[in-house]
Sequence to fold (432 residues):
Amino acid sequence: MKSCDYKLSALLVLSGVLALPATTSAAQAEAPVQQGADPQAIDQTAFDQCVQKLKARALQEQIAPAVVNSQMDSVQYVARVIELDRRQPEFTETFHNYLGQRVNEHRVQKGRTLLKQHYDLLLQLTHQYGIPPQYLVAFWGLETNFGAYLGKMNVLDSLTTLACDPRRSEFFTLELLEALRLVEAGVADHGTMLGSWAGAMGNMQFMPSAYRRFAVDADGDDKADLWNSLPDAFTSAAHFLNQLGWQRNLRWGREVLLPDDFDYALAGRDVRKPLAQWRQLGVRDVAGNRVPALDLAASVIVPSGHNGPAFVVYENFEVIMGWNRSEFYALAVGHLADRINGAGELKVSPPEGERLSIETVQWVQQTLNTAGYDAGPADGIFGTRTKRALRKLQKEQGWVADGYLSDDVLQRLRAWQREWAQAQPAQTGETP
Fold:
C-alpha cells in the first residue's frame, strides 16, 4: 500500500480545522466565519471577477497554467450551494431528529451485513492503523449510506462558489487550490470530480486537502481511488483517523446515567476530568454501576439537555470531531459503531422538540452578547461559545445549567431579556 506522494505537513491544520457537516465530510471543519459576510448570492459579473482572482491565486501557487485555465474557465456559480451552506442540519435539527434519521434499524442491519462482508480487510486495517472495523463501517454509513450516494455535484463548481462567498472564503479557496492539484495529479477533472455541495468526495467524503494528504492506494493499481475502490476508501479512512490521533483499544465514549443532583455546569467538552472523579460525582453506566475508577480523561455531554441522554466521551471522540466538528455527528458515529457491533438502543431517548431556526439562534446570541455573555458572532449556529454563554446565564439565574436551548429555556430567556432591558438606564446621549 502506498500513500499519495504528499507530506503530512498540514496535519495540525487538518486536526483542528478540517471537518464537514454530516452530508459532506472528512475534513471540512468549522472554518472561521468572516465577520460582516453578506449571505446574499452574488451576480454574474462579481462571480466572474472572483474567478479571475482565484485563477491568479492558483498561478501564484505554482499550479500549471494549463490546468488552471482548462478547469476554471468552465466553472459555474451554483446558488443551491450557498443555500445548503446556510442550512447545515447539525445546526437546525434537534438531536432526537438528527440521531433518529442517521442511526436507524435499517442502517444498523445493513452495517452489520457489510461488516461481515468486508471483515478480513477491516481486521487487517485494525492491526495496521488501530481503528476497529465497526467504526470504519459507521463512517461509511453516515457519509454516503454505505456508498449508495457519493454526491452528484461538480466539486470545482461548488468550491469556487463557496470561495466567492465571503462567509468562509479563505477556507474554501484553499480547498479549491487542493482540488486543482488533484486535477494536476491526474486524479479527476472538472467533468469527473463529483461530490457533495461542500466539495467532499468518494465513499468517505474526503475534502480535497484530506484526499491529497491521506488517500491511500491499497489495491495496488497506482491510484488512490476513493470513488470506486473500497480497499482504497477504507484504508484512507483508517489512515486519516490514525493520523488524527486515534487511541488503540479505547472506545469513543458511552451512555451514562447522571445523579439527580448533578451540576450540569460541569457538562461540556471544555470540562475534562479523570473518569475516577466522575465516578465520585455519581456518574454510572446504563446498568446502574459506577463508572470505573480510571485515570482516563473524559467529559460529560448532554446533547439534548438534562431531560435527554448523557454521555461520557474520551479522546477518540475528539478524534471523530477532527473528521467533523459536530458533536451530533460524532455521537452518531459512536452510537452507530456500537449498534453495528451488537449494542442496543440508547437507554434514555432524546426528547422531541422544535427545530431551531437560524433567526431564533441569532436572537439568542444577540441577547446574550448584549447582556455581557460572550456567545460569539450572531451567525445562527448554536455552537460551543453560545452554549457556554447560555450555561453561564442559566447558572446565575438558578436554572439547570445544561446549555440546552429547549422551548422552556427559550421562553424563560425571552422573559429574562424583557426584565433585563427594562432595568437598564435610559440612553440620554450625555457623556457620563
